[in-house]
């Protein structure tokens, strides 16, 4: 194994007996990849097939089958004589992905002003309730999680199934990028203020403003990555 490679043990639970072990293994591994800090580590992230088999409590056959599907979908890559690695995007690819996300989420925000109920829009405030009296920087892990939930919620409240499907696979990388960037250059405080402005526009059902604020907020992330991001070349 190359000295720069990082072999990662995913946070993963054993599978219950089921006739479709490949599907269960696929879901479990994909979920674990989504939740890992893929852009907060140096070097390639190698998956251990044997360890996955032990953690999931199944033979290596459904693990191999699940990894094959994940490779076809672009989440992992197989390198001859080296192993299976989590795919991390280049800086240019990341900026393009953020741009696509900005377009999709801003449209979801516009739709949410029409489709979401008053209670659903008001509940967006609760996502950041814990940060009313304390700065986000004092609880970065919790704020990072809240930040991700906020953007997922806007997608959901837009009520467009296709937007949800299109953002699902982007989310694996967007989540990791946001988790890293929110800790840089006091972005958490600025992020919180922008979130509050977006929530106010949604509650006011101002579609034009909500769409613009979400788009500008996400494109701000793209600009930050362009300036400060250190990702695979």
Automatic annotation (TrEMBL):
InterPro entries: GntR_C (IPR011711), TF_FadR/GntR_C (IPR008920), Tscrpt_reg_HTH_GntR (IPR000524), WH-like_DNA-bd_sf (IPR036388), WH_DNA-bd_sf (IPR036390). This is GntR family transcriptional regulator. CDD domains: WHTH_GntR. Keywords: DNA-binding, Transcription, Transcription regulation. The keyword Cytoplasm does not apply. It comes from the Bacteria. Residues 19-89 form the HTH gntR-type domain. Gene3D superfamilies: GntR ligand-binding domain-like, Winged helix-like DNA-binding domain superfamily/Winged helix DNA-binding domain.
